[in-house]
């Protein structure tokens, strides 16, 4: 029997009516002869409400306690969905992350999946049941509950799909798929039928609706991921290996810290593109989409004497605290001192500033300044690589629109500019229009 | 170091301010040099809200799913209390029922504790931490989460106190102790300084604030239980072995289905009362309090041919469904047929009626009728035993007040009347006044 893993986000299970609607959708798939594992997020704004509750009793809630608290949100939605499935006459059972065998490391708040013991999920499926798993959570070797971080339910779904060697992982959310830009910002944004893992990775990590880890994991374990709306039957977007063979998007292997048994992991394959393919590529629209992330903060360590080991001294404490650093820019001035700037998510800013201020004196830095009101706007497309002119066109479009660029960073398939958040949405529209993304 | 187990009910942790207040109370005990395990219920009306949520997606929520859902209420309160303790500078850790080693049978919704593996609690205490345990929940051998039924947090607290051989179990609630009647019904009700386990058992099972199982368990394992308000420093009521020696209240051993390792369990001791004690007893006020339970429903199986095995045929299916039957009355008429009436809690009535209607035809019964709007009012007092006159005085007081008695049941220390719920509160006041319970 085929097997699919479906993930429903918080907005898809926000109230009783929506939960029953999701149950009908799952039930129809099961009755058509497909085994289903459903992974759910917490209802609506539950997670934010729980965080608010934690802050009502503690200025800085303890990470282990916060994780056990937050894990309740998904327990509520997964038990309610299971009850709704049973109400509709289906055999179903809910499993918490620990019960579903989601084992993680001990990084509370942003735990990585270490392994999945899928025995119980398999037994329940074999017993003819629809299995509903609480997303976003797992358990450590010490029997403590962890959460995988925001968007972690996507990771749960893809990891289970990989462990069970499911035919497909379907992510249901409140948008109909992946667009050329956020449709709420650029009204003429166009839905993509398919996108490669790596392109999606750039779109996702820069503000689209999917957590990048889940896409990494999907790429590593070759799980086709279908993103669609839980509120309509409109076709969604398939994230899979596109272009020249199944591993085209991974000539540079991406890695994932989440490890899952089952499929054999990533196999490197040489890039097989020939001139014909290159020429076709030249004819394609090179920019796939405009990514946008309004949650950007920047820290600058000023006047650091330029000597080896500076970057390590600065970034090791951040890594130890599991704070992700995105863009890094270092400008060496004429006086043998340098400014190092980097971005973090806005939520990590207070902790990051504290850490940086504690190491800045040892580095001989003149000062530490930070800004919380920034955004990242990016053009993404695998067709851009080795093709000059995209960057300069991007900068020109922004300049014409009066948008000042603070920092620039590029990868093989992405060019990003850090700008003021106040101008962020205008920048998305300028670029979407300027690269003609409203047209196929 | 001495060890106490404290239990805080839902009203004691209903909001952030109350949680911080409870944290200060616990912290003060810890700083005075006593180890503390705190057991908490769900905040305020959380459990009712979760049940309502379940009913919004399912007419009859599946018991296993409902338990996993309800268990989240206590996870929220125990993590918040732990965060509050840490905010105040105390070392603390929250443990779910499963993490605290509360093992139960598989009776979802009303699970019984089978054993407590207190290893982790002991390790956390040894590490100098205040341990906050989610009440009301446990785990089966199959790794499924169970709840202990309403009031189960008291049972969690007493069971942990027994397993850890704690010096005392303190139950903090929104009342200042045990009264001679419900003060909301009888305004001149008086607080008791101490009460025996068995008297308290009758008061509790008939509507007072403590779950009878927790008192049974306290009696079996000789755990002194102190009931007081979490909102004031007024002295509460100590439930312990009173009278002639520690086991006076248990000349007839009470039993508990909840089993806990640790203390050696119940040891029978002969009643050592001599004439002096009896004479003192005669001088004491014999009625300790008026118990009241407004949650009573009655089922009558009419016209059953009178033959052996009838009661078994009727009550075995109810026992299998874990439905508690209280009062049972059988009236054999002149025509060799009999009516059997019994009471259940109102919440169990629909399921009980369904079961009874399914066995009634095999019993040859003429019909099944039920009533949901009844109440039980009782006079309780260990001094009443072997002393006639209390029953007749009770019936006279009710008759003078115009209260009709539907059923009567008696035990060594209790006389109960089933009456219309509409007259229940008047009946409590009539009896409280008539037995002069407002006076010491």
Write a concise synopsis of the structure shown:
The structure is a homodimer of 440-residue chains. In chain A, 34% of the residues lie in helices and 25% in strands.
Strand order of the largest sheet of chain A: 3-6-2-1-9-11-12-10
* Overall pLDDT score of chain A: 85
Instruction: Give the CA-based shape of chain A.
Output: globular
Give the total of beta strands of chain A: 18
Helix content of chain A: 25-40%
Radius of gyration of chain A: 23 Å
Structural class of chain A, by secondary structure, is alpha/beta
| Poorly predicted runs of 5 or more residues of chain A | 244-254, 262-285
List the total number of helices of chain A.
Answer: 12
What series of H and E elements makes up the topology of chain A? EHEHHEEEHEEEHEEHHEEHEHEEHEHEEH
Q: Which oligomeric state applies?
A: homodimer
The largest pleated sheet of chain A is described as: 8 strands, mixed
**Into which percentage range does the β-strand content of chain A fall?**
15-25%
End-to-end CA span of chain A: 37 Å
Primary descriptors:
homodimer; 440 residues; alpha/beta; 8-stranded mixed β-sheet; 6-stranded antiparallel β-sheet; 34% helix
Question: Describe it for me?
Answer:
- The structure is a homodimer.
- The first copy, chain A, has about 450 residues and is α/β, with parallel strands linked by helices.
- Helices cover about 35% and strands about 25% of the residues of chain A.
- The first copy, chain A, is globular and about 75 Å long.
- About 10% of the residues of chain A have low confidence.
